[in-house]
Specification:
The protein is mostly helical. The chain contains 13 helices and 16 strands. The strands form seven sheets. It has a three-stranded antiparallel β-sheet with strand order 1-2-3.
């Protein structure tokens, strides 16, 4: 029943909504729809949004075999080729106007990673080797430009000179303390995610070696064994600079790290990874699951009990993955409760809508948040549906 419900929501809810966001005049997909479902066709278009949409339609096609989904992925691919990639200095821009002209030409490692992720999946879906070539080019750019002896630098200007990393350390608590993170768990996680997909589809030896190092970095530098959680914000030398627990990132990381280890195919790495991803999942279940959903995060002693759309989506996958690793049915029960919460409070019943961005503890949507914007996309909730279908576990 669970798998059937999720598939029905994917096919009749998420996919039709995002198809209608397609811009047939200037390419790509429209970048903003407010809470009242008013579409702004002249809003900025985030390159991350385009990458995530391309990834989503590529994988939806691979799962459902509907040719119209591959055509949508190709539409996003053509926009990326024509507008998102900087052919002079390399890499992918941060933000474009509605016509596809750069309005923020900074380069961020996180953004490059999502382009790699999308291009790799599109290569599998389409067989277009140009996509794989572009992904490998971005991989080499990250490895040649964005690394230091401790890990990955993150923020750069258009010509790849380092700049302040405000984009990924934009946190109200960090701001109140006057801190800017030079490195973040979020970027490390999504570079790992991108390299996992790139290695899976191309089996490049160098990519595999870098992926293995990312897993090692996460285990030894990002994971806090005593707390059973991932640290979030770091200085240049990967020393934690904040007492923070991001519940959504941890449960998402728990399954993405396992996926990376499985793709590498080394049993020792698989076992070493499981040894800390399982404790991460148990910790999140213990401290963050409340009243049918996952709270957002903890900073020092301040617990944010806001419910965020992507956190709920990733928790469904993360807890199902934890069940697969442990056979502990308590994880399945939590996944089931969160799906029920999503159906009740997050899926917008209004016509031509999708999921709310966030709801409060009582399930009331925050009307100041839009339905679509550069970070609000079908990547998390769409991927949840695809993973549930792929794993085929009824809870």
């Amino acid at each position: 029943m669970f798998v059937a419900e999720v598939k029905e929501h994917l096919v009749n809810g998420i996919i039709p909504f995002w198809k209608k966001l397609r811009d047939n005049t200037y390419g790509g997909y429209y970048g903003y729809m407010n809470y009242d479902l008013e579409l702004d066709q002249t809003a900025i278009k985030g390159c991350i949004l385009n990458s995530r949409i391309m990834w989503f339609f590529s994988n939806a096609y691979l799962t459902l075999k509907d040719e119209s989904l591959l055509e949508e992925a190709t539409h996003a691919f053509e926009f990326m080729k024509a507008h998102c990639i900087d052919y002079k200095y390399g890499g992918v821009y941060w933000m474009l106007d509605y016509k596809g002209n750069p309005v923020e030409d900074m380069k961020h490692t996180y953004n490059q990673a999502f382009a790699i992720y999308a291009l790799s999946s599109y290569y599998v879906a389409s067989g277009n080797s140009e996509a794989l070539d572009l992904a490998m080019g971005l991989f080499h750019k990250i490895e040649s430009t964005c690394k230091d002896e401790y890990g990955y630098l993150e923020a750069f200007d258009r010509t790849w000179e380092p700049i302040d990393n405000h984009k990924l350390s934009d946190n109200k608590h960090m701001e109140s303390e006057g801190k800017v993170a030079e490195k973040t768990m979020n970027t490390i996680l999504h570079v790992l995610e991108a390299y996992t997909e790139l290695y899976r589809v191309g089996k490049d030896v160098e990519v595999g070696r870098c992926l293995e190092k990312l897993l090692q970095m996460t285990e030894l530098k990002v994971y806090n064994k005593e707390k059973r959680q991932l640290e979030v914000f770091f200085d240049t030398q990967l020393r934690s600079i904040a007492d923070m627990h991001s519940y959504g990132h941890d449960i998402e990381a728990a399954w993405l790290l396992d996926r990376a280890a499985l793709v590498l195919g080394n049993q020792d790495i698989i076992d070493r990874t499981k040894a800390y991803t399982v404790p991460i999942a148990y910790k999140v279940k213990e401290v963050a699951f409340e009243k049918g959903a996952l709270n957002n995060e903890r900073f020092n002693n301040d617990i944010d009990k806001t419910r965020i759309w992507w956190v709920q989506a990733e928790s469904v996958v993360g807890f199902i993955n934890a069940y697969e690793k442990t056979q502990d049915v308590a994880f399945l029960e939590v996944a089931k409760e969160i799906w029920q919460y999503i159906k009740t409070y997050f899926i917008d019943s209004r016509a031509h809508s999708e999921w709310y961005w966030q709801v409060d503890e009582n399930g009331r949507p925050n009307k100041s948040y839009p339905i679509v914007e550069p970070w609000k996309c079908p990547y998390h909730n769409g991927r949840m549906c695809l993973e549930v279908i792929r794993r085929d576990i009824n809870v």
